[in-house]
From TrEMBL:
Keyword Membrane attributed: no
UniProt family annotation: Belongs to the aldehyde dehydrogenase family.
Keywords on record: NADP, Oxidoreductase
Name recorded for this polypeptide: NAD-dependent succinate-semialdehyde dehydrogenase
Gene3D superfamilies: Aldehyde Dehydrogenase, Chain A, domain 1 (3.40.605.10), Aldehyde Dehydrogenase, Chain A, domain 2 (3.40.309.10)
Domain Aldehyde dehydrogenase stretches: 4-451
Alphabetical list of InterPro entries matching this protein: Ald_DH/histidinol_DH, Ald_DH_C, Ald_DH_N, Aldehyde_DH_dom, ALDH_GabD1-like, GABD/Sad-like
Transmembrane segment boundaries: none
One Pfam assignment: Aldedh
Domain of life: Bacteria
PANTHER family: SUCCINATE SEMIALDEHYDE DEHYDROGENASE [NAD(P)+] SAD
Keyword Phosphoprotein: no
Amino acid sequence: MIITVNPATGEQLESYPELTGDEIDARLDKAQAAYQDWRKTALGERTELLSNLAQTYEANKDKLARMCLAEMGKTYASAIAEVEKCAALFRHLAQDGPAMLEPERWSLGDGKIAEGRWLPQGPVLAVMPWNFPYWQVARFLAPTILAGNVALLKHASSVQGVARLMEEMLIEAGGPAGLFQNLSIKSDKVHAIIADDRVVAVTLTGSEGAGRAVAEQAGRYLKKVVLELGGSDPFIVMPSADLDAAVAQAVKARIQNTGQSCICGKRMIVHTDIYDAFMQKFSDAMRAVKAGDPMDETTDMGPLSSFEQRQTVLDQLALAKEHGAKLDFGGEALDREGAYMSAGILTGVDPDGPFASEELFGPVAMVFRARNIDDAIRIANAIPFGLGSSVWTSDDGERERFIRDIEAGMTAVNQMLASAPEAPFGGIKRSGHGRELSRHGLHEFMNLKTVMLPA
């Protein structure tokens, strides 16, 4: 049995029976049958479904947002924004997606040509996390629909209500049965599904450990895999930066989604010339952060997604202090009902030590002092992850150095990094491989078939 819990109150929400082996087998049969029909549908039918999905999400955004709020503690405003972002992605691919699937042509000489056709491959399994429970799934589901594939979802146990609603939204939008199925299972059932011949590929967003396990199984069965494994993104501030803007975005990076975002800056790397000024402003702003009722418009951040997640962050902070770091303030469980904790700042972390590679998935920032741009880049790269990065400078030369030398899949200049339907999303090093979103994400699970033709 899978049980969901409201992290703001500790109240049990609902229980979901875990699928049996026979039930999983029936779902895979249904997915395979749905694929045989969906792969032959006209592109216009697929884009119409995406347009309908956008309208359906917008029409039901209050219901969707309230489920997200109840299951993982997201504030109502941010939950509404997440649902609207999903609608924007569906609409973007409905409008611009067909051009991304246009065949390419090459002249081969001797009167011959070759064409590259983008074709679907089959059912794709997605193993998705709880932190952005609609958006993470939508950025897999939307290209799956457009490509002509079908979708199987293993969502996080804590957001089964969200997963059920997403399946209902597809049916309400006019999607055929079997095109998108939520599998109410725990992680121990994933390996057998990857091994099944009816599943052609797998995508995962989650921890490094989960990524290793899924990639190992996918490799064993020669299945394509895309991995987004998070990281500990650098947020670099140089003397020429707009300090007030940088501080405001640094705070937002650490408290957005109660600090539970893969691509928001976690390691603030500040040039020594402005370090004291930055710390004064940053500390004042972080101390003022209000944790509270997710439905209250004045709340800056809700609870963490679960009591277990809060304990994980508290244990990490205790480990940091054992390694010589100092918790300047905050980072404590709040004495109130729910999985709340205070925003905080951690200093004195050895940039070359083991704790600097920890991903603090909560509202606490690590702050480092950098002597110069070379030192800032060295600190940024001194960890095994490379998802995103944010750099703050008005110097063109520094900007180009950061873009060239920071080891990451994404770099934002004078802004907080954020995902967008139009731009490729993904990392390097231990943050995974492959891309989501944009035309590159659309093509990840498609067959680029070369067709040889006479002129």
